[in-house]
Amino acid sequence: MDRFSVFETTPESQEIMGSIRLRAVEWGVFFSCDGKRTAHELAERFELLPEAIQTVLARLREVELIVEAAMPIEEYLARRGRADTTDEPMALQTFLEGAGKEVIQQVRRKMRLGAVMSYITGYSPSQTEGQLAVYRVFLRLPPELLKHHGIRSLSLVDNSTQVEEGELTEALERSVRQVLGRELPDSVWE
Amino acid sequence: MNLERRLKTFIDVAVRFFERLTSEEAVVDSPSIDFGERELLDFTGVIRISGPADGLVYVTAPTAMIEALLRATGETDMRPRLLGDFVGEMANTISSNARKDFGPAFEVSVPKVIRRGEAFPYAFPPVAFVLPIQWRDFSCQIVIAVEEQQDGEF
């Protein structure tokens, strides 16, 4: 079990639930095991240290309320997201540098520029000022980075451009932070 | 006053210019941000601003639109020099209002008029806010291209 492990309830859990006793935090974690949340996310949700969440999950597995869910490599890489992976085994690093490049390409997030623009204009008193605030944000981006992504012009209305996570999206996040003093929300990602 | 509100002055004045002159509404179309080369239309009136933000604001319009605007004011002389003067007057109206609104931290130049094919007198800042303005069936553009010299409120 590691921090990217996900858990789902067992088919027997409905029957077992009525006959066992658990601590409140254990029940809480049990009801949050939806086959999607990682051990790391569960720890954050219940404000538990890594060792504590491991103990809770071990207890839930012991009483057969949950099992660890298996997942394909694409899903594992998506869950890894942008987490620090410097301690990963050499086999995975080798995979990522070789055949895994294509898989990574498939799971890399995309930022919706239209959603970024809407978020910025939402903090302005008028539409025009909002659009000019968007202009200020883009003013701070290196033009060569935009050109590298083939962006020569951006409509400020109904924009459907998507940009793959990387140097440009990081620059955009930084610029929004500088101009608005706020972080971009998760909803700007596809 | 923040930079967005100051730059909005240019747009408001330009839209009002049409309405005051012709009593007909001008409509602001969807703006864009341009990162590359920009094409100028037949006549362009350009103002240079400097201070906390340095750059250019210009209005660029096709001949047919300027002729229609002049006709709407009762003018019948359509010589190119007069068309250029008209665009210069439009840019002058924008710059006069901007001088009042921007305050002493900014310098706003007198406008220069450029005809299509003439050399543009300034270097283009790399990122421009382009706002098309529709009047009757014609379209011109207000272009704001600045580079911020400092952060925050001005």
Walk me through this protein's architecture.
The complex is a heterodimer of chains A (190) and B (154). Chain A is built from eleven helices and six strands. By secondary structure, chain A is mainly alpha-helical. Chain A has three domains: 6-68, Arc Repressor Mutant, subunit A (Orthogonal Bundle); 73-105, no CATH class; 110-188, no CATH class. Chain A has a three-stranded antiparallel β-sheet. In chain A, strands 4-6 form a two-stranded antiparallel sheet. The model of chain A has no long low-confidence stretch (mean pLDDT 86). Chain B has one domain (3-147): CheC-like (Chemotaxis protein chec, 3-Layer(aba) Sandwich), CATH 3.40.1550. In chain B, α1 (3-22) crosses α3 (80-102). Chain B is globular and about 45 Å long. Chain A binds chain B through residues 124, 126, 128-136, 138-141, 143, 146-147, 151-158, 178, and chain B through 3-5, 7-8, 11, 28, 30-36, 126-127, 129-130, 144, 146-148, 151. β5 (153-155) of chain A pairs antiparallel with β2 of chain B.
Say how many strands of chain A there are: 6
Portion in helices of chain B: 25-40%
What proportion strand of chain B?
Answer: 25-35%
Q: Please, how many helices of chain A?
A: 11
What is the residue-mean pLDDT of chain A, rounded to a whole number?
86
The N- and C-terminal alpha carbons of chain B lie at a distance of: 6 Å
Shape of chain A: elongated
Mean pLDDT of chain B comes to: 88
**Order of helical and strand elements of chain A:** EHHEHHEHHHEHHHEEH
Q: What's the SSE pattern of chain B?
A: HEEEEHHEEEE
How many strands, what sense, and barrel or not for the largest sheet of chain A?
Answer: 3 strands, antiparallel
Question: Class of chain B in CATH?
Answer: Alpha Beta
**CATH T-level topology of chain B:** Chemotaxis protein chec
Classify the beta-strand content of chain A into a percent band.
5-15%
Query: What pair of chains forms the biggest interface?
Result: A-B, 27 and 23 residues
Structural class of chain B: alpha+beta
Number of helices of chain B: 3
At the fourth CATH level, what is the homologous superfamily of chain B? Answer: CheC-like
> What overall geometry of chain B do the principal axes of the alpha carbons give?
globular
Largest sheet entry of chain B: 8 strands, antiparallel
